[in-house]
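1st attempt posting a full record on here, be nice pls
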Amino acid sequence: MNFRIAYLRQPSTVLPTQKAINTVLFLICLSWTALLVGCSTSDVTTLGDWRTRSDLDGVSRSASVGFVIGNVAYIGTGTTSSNDLLKDFWAYDQSTNAWSQVSNFGGAARISAVGFALGNKGYVGTGVDANNNRLKDFWEFDQAANTWNQIADFGGTARRNAVAFAVNNKGYVGTGYDGNYLKDFWTYDPESGSWEKTTSFGGGKRLGAISFIINNIAYVGTGTNGAALTDWWAYDPAQDLWIEKGDFEDEETVARSYGVGFAIGSRGYVTAGDGSATVWQYNPDDDSWAEFGVFEGGTRLYALGFAMNGKGYITTGLSGTTTFDDLWEFDPTIAQDTDTY
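the predicted structure (as tokens):
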């Protein structure tokens, strides 16, 4: 930046006073100081910091499934880098930052299943087994007894890479792939132990979508039907109604499949998948997206994301032929250290 000092025209015999010169120089210095302070401030105000936590005690994997009960996240199934399917299950205690093994999943080893929690019970079902058979069995995990019990089969067709969420003490499962892309949705009522078909997803058929819950409203979007999708929808379970939200601004925002999504408070977050490692924050109040730093674990497919007690987490996943067992914790209230990426 170039500065030029201009003086008022004076008679040729009159020179500017030293005081005037000092004043102009002071203003120049003040301008440079403001610029430097402004740059420094922008460098440290990118919120959303990540830190590593205790690695998963089990083997590294991708396409696993999980759910959260209280302060504990449960993670299991999936596949190793050698394509060995798994049925082990692990519990992560947020308060102690420690893992412990729980009872193996009750059904067959599988990948690309879905999971959700209702009260002190976890639920896992659908997916693909070692013989590439698509599945529709569903299992309930009793946290207190550390046991798995089979419940009624999923009400829709056997499928993989569906999406699931829980709201108002009911579980919801929909979309996915059964040989064709799907958009149907089903709800599970733990009191009756049965599935009931609900209104189909408002957008197009897809697999590999994401979902999260904010204020008892489910938000579902992204995924693929052969191309990465950008539409975004809200589901109101009280009305059994899907509401179209604004499309993403451009392909750089959150267009992706097999990504990770979770909600913290009144905001949702999306990253990873076959999109970039940029983290995007969704604000349902004005239906807008904003860049929120970078996931420091790097871009990966088939990762698992969840949130509890004001923190978000990402674990496992696949990059190339490498599977992961790392665990990353996200705090949206802390400024990200930009020197780490």
